[in-house]
Amino acid sequence: MNVFITGASSGLGEALAYRYAKTGATLGLFARRRDRLRHLQETLGATATSPVHIYEGDVTDVSALQYAAQDFLAAAGVPDIVIANAGVSHGTVTGGKGEADLPVFHEVFDTNVMGIVNTFHPFVDAMREARRGTLVGIASVAGFRGLPGSGAYSASKAAAISYLESLRVELRGSGIAVVTLCPGFIATPMTANNPYPMPFLISASEAADLMVRAIEKKKRRYVFPWPMMLVGKLLRVLPNVLYDALFAHAPHKPRK
């Protein structure tokens, strides 16, 4: 099995790399921090039975992803699974002193939305020709409703959910599955500084196990852990007037 993962140097991406290495998969790991990638390659290489290929780059850099995809295709063949995992999360405000947040909005959207598109694009033709493979995008429960102080993050994850749904329908009958994963709170560097309670928090390794099972089953959309699935359903049907009253004074994520 061949698996390509972005954002692989820490958090969920790193946990997924360890999880798939145990299955004997040939890995393509893409991330910004080369030192972390090399450490991961050496650690996995000590026990892995298949090659671990590493690629330094940012998912907003189209050429870097195109190079990584071409190299991985040449070295390992058509991937069975491509996981667009890279993402960023920063608190943002609009107007007033939030003018400094304008570039942060661009960064969040470029990474969390276009990063998924950039990751999938160089692999789709080869997967379509092979008539197999699974494209996996990491969205979030935060994409179900707009969270105050997290306008960029919530909107980017909502956009990711819609994009992945569009892609899933586009590829129907091609042999390529599209899986949308919507995690709740996961203990990763991204959530480490959140100044508010995080209900149903699970570890990255627990999340990776749940994600791998969902990918194996080719679930169209998977919300986890299960209590967050219930919360997500409730949020989506909550009347606007009630939602506004409940979340108007919710604590905000720190701004960048």
Summed up, what is this model?
The chain is of the alpha/beta class and about 260 residues long.
How are the secondary structure elements laid out?
Blueprint: E1 2-6, H1 11-21, E2 26-31, H2 34-45, E3 52-56, H3 62-76, E4 81-84, H4 102-130, E5 134-138, H5 151-170, E6 177-183, E7 186-187, E8 202-203, H6 204-216, E9 221-224, H7 226-237, H8 240-247
Parallel strand pairs: 1-2, 1-4, 2-3, 4-5, 5-6, 6-9, 7-8
Helix pairs in contact: 1-6, 3-4, 4-5
Folded structure, characterized:
By secondary structure, this protein is α/β, with parallel strands linked by helices. The protein has one domain (2-247): Rossmann fold, CATH 3.40.50.720. The chain has eight helices and nine strands. The protein has helices spanning 11-21, 34-45, 62-76, 102-130, 151-170, 204-216, 226-237, 240-247, and strands spanning 2-6, 26-31, 52-56, 81-84, 134-138, 177-183, 186-187, 202-203, 221-224. Strands 3-2-1-4-5-6-9 form a seven-stranded parallel beta sheet, with helices on both faces. A two-stranded parallel ribbon has the order 7-8. The longest helix is centred in the middle third of the chain and has 29 residues, at 102-130. The chain is globular. The N and C termini lie far apart (39 Å).
CATH class: Alpha Beta
Low-pLDDT sequence parts: none
Into which percentage range does the β-strand content fall? 15-25%
Task: Estimate the global geometry from the Cα principal axes.
Answer: globular
Total domains? 1
- The count of helical stretches stands at 8
Task: Give the tally of β-strands.
Answer: 9
Rounded Rg:
18 Å
For the terminal residues, how far apart are their CA atoms? 39 Å
Broad structural category: alpha/beta
CATH architecture classification: 3-Layer(aba) Sandwich
Which range best describes the helical content: under 10%, 10-25%, 25-40%, 40-55%, 55-70% or over 70%? 40-55%
Largest sheet: 7 strands, parallel
Mean pLDDT: 92
**Element-by-element helix/strand order:** EHEHEHEHEHEEEHEHH
Q: If strands are numbered along the chain, what order do they take across the biggest sheet?
A: 3-2-1-4-5-6-9
CATH superfamily: NAD(P)-binding Rossmann-like Domain
| CATH topology label | Rossmann fold
